[in-house]
Design brief:
Length: about 200
């Protein structure tokens, strides 16, 4: 089993500046209805497996189902850019340690064409700002080749996803998507990505 939570301690026998546990980050497609104090099933499942975690999303629109995300014509570049800023800001707070990110978007990433481009921009920004990053996935990839969403394991009745974490090659993932023509890296603006 991988030990993905690192203890953080800064101090000595006389002074302690920081103590805690560095979080593991989960990157999903979009947020559901969870708020502090009222977790949704995915958040409860993550909480039951990890002592310290932070949930991030490819696109920040709250929607109970990814099918309800805005269509291509209503994609908001400003919202996406704010999302990237928020992601980098929170990850940067823990960048003195290795950042561990679980790719957890499942096949829902295929619900909107702009999601692949948004993911790509997020990954590039993380790579540009953070030097020590490890990517993980939960168990086997889906039949479509995407890293599984935690809800898959809720449906199968498996309760321990910690033991299912496997290193994930995010660069190879994009290479495969490009070969399958699901994604084109030439477009800089997420909402204008050309999919086939």
């Amino acid at each position: 089993m991988l030990d993905l939570i690192e203890d953080i301690f800064e101090g000595d026998n006389d002074y302690r500046y920081i103590i805690g546990r560095s979080p593991i980050f989960f990157l999903g497609v979009n947020p559901s209805t969870a708020k502090p104090g009222t977790p949704d099933p995915t958040i409860r499942f993550v909480e039951s497996n990890f002592d310290s975690w932070i949930m991030l999303n490819i696109y920040p629109q709250i929607a109970s189902k990814p099918q309800n995300l805005v269509p291509e014509s209503k994609f908001d570049q400003r919202i996406h850019e704010k999302n990237i800023e928020s992601i980098i800001s929170i990850i940067d707070k823990y960048s003195n340690k290795t950042i561990r990110i679980v790719a957890a978007w499942g096949d829902s990433i295929e619900e909107r064409r702009y999601l692949f481009s948004c993911l790509y921009k997020i990954v590039i920004e993380i790579k540009n700002k953070i030097k020590q990053i490890e990517w993980y996935r939960i168990g086997e990839l889906t039949k479509k080749g995407n890293p599984r969403h935690p809800s898959y394991y809720l449906k199968t009745g498996e309760t321990n996803i910690k033991d299912k974490l496997i290193k994930f090659d995010i660069d190879e993932y994009f290479n495969i998507l490009t070969r399958l023509r699901k994604f084109a890296v030439s477009h800089q603006k997420c909402g204008t990505q050309n999919n086939h």
